[in-house]
Amino acid sequence: MKFKFRMGSLLKLRKHQEQLEKQRLAEFMNRRQELCELKKNHEEKIKQSGGIMTDNGSGSMDLSVLRAHYVFKQDQHQEMWRLDGKLNKVEEKVELQRKKLVNANQRMRMLEKMRDRERLQFIKKVQHLEQKELNEIATQHYNREY
Question: What pTM did the predictor assign?
Fold first, then answer.
């Protein structure tokens, strides 16, 4: 006798679904990491652009340089604001995906517990049948001798 789980194909499907959910979560987390790095790059550009603002030695500043600097900073801040919006959306997706992964994991664990229970019942049944057979053999052996 060999043990065969009656819901084996369903368990295999649930494992596959869990793997897909893990992959999706990894994709969202990678996207979040990319956005964080982009945001850091923009912050660094803003910090580095502060050194551009130096006077030309005569005590006055070139208006075109000043204007270009502030336009650059404004563009960087707008881009950071846009990235913050995307980052918030990705964070929401990450949280949703984590919930989906937890749900998929629970469904798979439930089936694994069912499989383990059925396996234990099968083992007990096989042991009972073996003991019954051994008892029958012992009884026949005893009856032959006496």
Answer: 0.72
